[in-house]
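Protein 1 of 2
SEQ + STRUCT:
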Amino acid sequence: MPSKTYQRIRSDHASEVAEDYVEAIADAITERGVCRAIDLVKHFAVTHATVNNTIGRLQRDGFVVTEPYQPIELTAAGKRLATQSRQRHEIVESFLRRMGVSAATAAADSEGIEHHVSKETLAAMKRVLTKGWPSEPS
């Protein structure tokens, strides 16, 4: 595999946690009006220390703002990242369902694929969802 491919995979892994967290924070805010660290502890089934460390990185990177014992809020950049991640997730999951994958499997598989799908592949998936499968060459 070419070096460029490995670099993209490493970059995808680095952003995967941030995307999952901002998406979960956005969901919690939508559902309950607020997101607290305990919501993320329960959602991801991790420790408070893991959540605190991750939130610290997200704050450093400009995706969230929070103070000790206060709710976690998304910055404009965090909201954009959450929206982009949610859209990728929905396209991938819908595409898998269109291929005949069960709802449960499509939901689980899209969680991993959404972080690694290229813009080109995502655009092709979206075309299939909106226009149908391309004709086979004759």
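Protein 2 of 2
SEQ + STRUCT:
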Amino acid sequence: MKRRNILWYSLLFIAGCTTGTNPKNNSDKLAISSPKKLNFTVTDVAGIEDLQQDYGAFRAVLEEILGIKIDFFPVENPTAAAPALLSGKVDIVFAGPSEYLILNSRAKAIPIIAIRRSNYHSIFVVRADSKIKSLAQLRGKTIAMRKIGSTSGHIAPTKLLIDAGLNPNTDLKIIMLDDQGAKALKKGEVDAWATSFDRYHNILEAEGLLEKDFSIILKGPLLPNDIFVASNLLASSFVEDVRARMFEHQDKLIQSLLTAKANQKYKDGKFISANDSDYNMIREVYQKIGQGSFL
């Protein structure tokens, strides 16, 4: 878990997908303009049971709104959705910001709609008794992050460190601890912990930790949105219709997401237009950590 680059993402992708253009002609003349069935997946949910538990209600509402049968298509890891899109095995994917760049660059996925999370910020946390008050003071220190490629738990914190004048490859040590960063910080095994603001209190509660024992030294700007994308094998007119219907029925769709405990991060969320340029911050980080060719 102490790997400090994201090369493994590339290896996972190459194992399941060849680079280059889609071998199928995806012009609107041959595109699927009115599919009888759609396959849907979520990049960070592995297994049909978890998909059903976390997105069963959403799938049912989307099926009703579109008037088309929708089946789940589970993927083994976040990058596996790209070859699934390329091969036509999946039609619509719900992805995090970092995963969107993979789907966009490798599978030419078409943005449908994004969902804004009201508290989606990266934060840096230290112990309450720590003398560290700024990111500049993290030079030579050890920082716990979530997992490689996580927007709020790796990419965005890395951007904040770079903006503070630190080289994340040489000026400090980063270890990936998933949601165990809070415990490691409490025990003094790390000097700081980077996570997302909308997960922070949930993690402390789950681990039986007290907020008074920690101090947030930085809260970053609002992060790029999670996004629904479509296969480029679908006709642009059909994708536009899906987009319009999702906008029209967004309250019902978002409420269906909130029926699952795992999706409470979308409370007070809102569907907005999906703009590719909103994700340039993530592209910038990949470039600065030497992984630009990945995208």
